[in-house]
Amino acid sequence: MAVAKIAKAEFYIHKSDVDGVLSALQNTGSYEVVPFSSDDESEGPVITHPDFSRVDFLLGETRFLLRFLEPHFVDPISGMARSMGEKEVFSLHQTRDLDSRTDIPALAEDIRKLERRLMEIRSESSQIDSTEILLLSLKNFPYPLELLSTGTEHVRGILGTIPAEQVEPWRRGAESLLGTMGEVYVAPGAEKEKERTVALFFDEAVSQKASELNARHSFNRIEIPPGLQSGVSDELALLGKRRIALAAEEKEILGKSAEAAALWVPTVRALSDYYSVLRDRYSALGSGNATDQVVMLRGWIPESALPEVQKALSVHDSSIELVLSEPGPDDNVPSFIVNPPWCLPFENLTRLYGAPKYGEIDPTPLLAPFFFIFFGMCLGDAGYGLIMIGFFVWFLRKFKRMPTSFRGFFNLFVLSGVSTVVVGALTGSWFGDLVDAFGIFSFLRPLKNSLIILNPMEDPMTFLGLSLALGVVQLLFGLGIAFYDALRKKNYMGAFADTGGWIVFLVGLLLWGGCAGGFLSTGTEPLAKTLTIAGAVILLATQGREKTGFLSKAVSGLLSLYGVTSYLGDVLSYSRLLALGLATSAVGVIINMLAGLAGDIPFIGWILALLLIIGGHIFSIAVNVLGAFVHSLRLQYVEFFSKFYTGGGRVFAPLTYKTSYVSIKKEPVE
Q1: Closest CA relative to residue 536, chosen from 560, 553, 569
Q2: Is 13 helix (H, G, I), strand (E, B) or coil?
Q3: Hey, how many other C-beta atoms are within 10 angstroms of the C-beta on 433?
């Protein structure tokens, strides 16, 4: 149940063989490189691979190319399939050959030219849109636009808007101020408009007076682009022609982009992942130290992977030395989780909470049976379980190369579906009461009824008792794990005084309660009282041991007994197994009832009933599967883990092939 053992591994490599050793380590995927600490006595100069700059530059270029080209690429593999592992498979030899045959910088420069011109076209098109909106607001403007954009040698023009109530005072002011030295234009508009477009033409000699006039009447100037010279209609026609030309050029560029995408995206994807793999390798080298001739790497290797690593490095025996040692107390050792195949699907649940620390107990095989049972009790419908099994098995078969984490997650739901089928069959729930609600399924009723051992809808208290009993079992099991873990760490006081005291006390209370409720014979009562008193005495005597003074110790020990209420609350939390199971059954019954009522409608009733049954149960499956997953998981995280598990470990992260677009296969070790 513990996390797999890991060895501290230090490599001393002659510089001539560094590339080969790093390549072999990355191929095994079993070595995590750890940077040397800043205060390490052996710290040497920062190591930079001579090819690092080139690879980093090329990786940036491939990412630019993919950013631009992928929107124009018709991918034969869907995004869903790609995320599920359906990727092209390359060897490092193939990607290395692609690198030698492909001039990425030249390709990136060509594509940048397309991108720049496309941006220029779209910017100009945006400007045309804005100019057209302006010109359409001036469609009745009778003067050449050059009077507003550039003016003549002596005449200047200003276009703008002013509040509607200021138009007449502004007009009179302009006529009075400018006389024959100016001219006023007011665009026609509706009476209810709050602002009016106006223009003022004047001799340059009175420009200061014109500006002062406009300022007094809240004049808001509108700038006219310098390129507009002719009349409004002529300029609109020119803009229309320019728009057509730009659209044609944009279409041509997009066509070239699509051609380039079809030709280059698969290659660039493979190269992007190749450069990413090389960059990871060179970054690992940068985490090491060096002398003039030797490179030192420090990291972790799982003991189970040592033979593979040593075999992969056997060709470099003459130029490397591997020093293995046990992890020290101050080392931040990663967790390498290894579980038997039957509980691998449940490993994701542990990772969601947090990996165990090195040397701690891995809770995956401990929570697996409980989660399996609890999910089935929460969903509790055999029909829904069959749908789950069918859907996720189909998904697993469709995407056979999906990542291990995804495969484990989908296998988890297959197992949860099996649990749901078993619980649903034993409680008589098949799509709610579908078999009983519709006569067409009457031939199935004898088989369904023969499997039932408990119907929660008719006898909820028994199901509640079963739920609480399972809660008691899991909580005591959690305390038992904590007891074992404390013994394993030689923390005898923690084992017997803390965890052991609570186990004795709680078991005594349970037996005593069973006797009082008539579930156990009266002969058990003396044992129950003895255990309860013994457990209470242990807690009273030990729970205040950190305090000073007899009175403080006694009070702390007495107050610790109040913790029994938290255990009671934990047990009551398991009543959610009944609540969710009843909710699923009730929703199914309501769907079937509505379908039965709809079926009585003439002519179209059977269609409506069918739609209600299919749509309603699909909705019910989606909602209740989510609820069953969340609440079953909550019981593990909050009630179960709180008794013995804290998490907070760091997952083993070896140097390996991390790719986004293609799969790079490992080279076989000879």
Answers
A1: 560
A2: strand
A3: 18
Contact 272, 62 (CB under 8 A): yes
What CATH number is associated with residue 188? 3.30.70.2750
User: What range defines the domain where residue 535 resides?
Assistant: 346-643
495: number of CA atoms within 13 Å, CB side? 12
| Closest to 73 in 3D by CA, of 292, 260, 199 | 260
Asked whether residue 496 is assigned to any structural domain, the reply reads yes
For the entire predicted model, the pTM comes to: 0.82
Are both 263 and 352 inside the same structural domain?
no
Dist. CA 138–CA 186, nearest whole Å: 10
Asked whether 545 and 553 are in contact (CB, 8 A), the reply is yes
* Same domain, yes or no: 242 and 365: no
The strand pair at 289-290 and 294-302 is best described as antiparallel
Q: 664 in helix, strand or coil? A: strand
Q: What is the pLDDT of residue 39?
A: 56
Whether 210 is in a domain gets the answer: yes
Q: Which of 359, 313, 249 is nearest to 12 (CA)?
A: 313
Residue 583 domain-assigned (yes or no)? yes
Which residues 6+ apart lie within 8 Å of 598 measured at CB?
A: 605, 608, 609, 612
CA 260 to mean position of chain CA atoms: 32
Query: What's the CA gap between 468 and 451, in Å, rounded?
Result: 23
Q: Which residue type does 434 have?
A: L
Residue corresponding to tokens 């508009």: 189
84 and 223 housed in the same domain: no
Q: Are residues 575 and 546 in the same domain?
A: yes
Residue written as token pair 């390359």: 90
Q: What is the pLDDT of residues 495-546, one digit of tens each?
A: 888 888 888 888 888 888 888 777 777 778 788 888 888 878 887 777 766 6
- Is the separation of the CB atoms in 338 and 596 below 8 Å? no
Tokens coding 114:
């397309």
Which residue type is seen at 338?
V
Could you read off the pLDDT of 233-266 as tens digits, one per residue? Answer: 888 899 999 999 999 999 999 999 999 999 999 9
Q: How crowded is residue 53: how many other Cβ atoms within 10 Å of its Cβ?
A: 11
User: Using an 8 Å Cβ cutoff, are 374 and 44 in contact?
Assistant: no
**CA 286/CA 304 separation, integer angstroms:** 27
Model pLDDT for residues 427-463, shown as the tens digit of each residue: 999 998 888 888 888 888 999 899 999 988 888 999 9
Please return the burial class of 220, using the count of CB atoms within 10 Å of its CB with bins 0-12, 13-18 and 19+.
Answer: exposed
N-terminal to C-terminal alpha carbon distance within the chain? 33
3-class state of residue 537 by DSSP? helix
- Give the span between the Cα atoms of 654 and 186, in whole angstroms: 76
Task: For residue 7, give the H/E element and its range.
Answer: strand 6-14
Q: Name the token pair of 291.
A: 């002398």
Biggest CA–CA distance in the chain, Å, is: 123
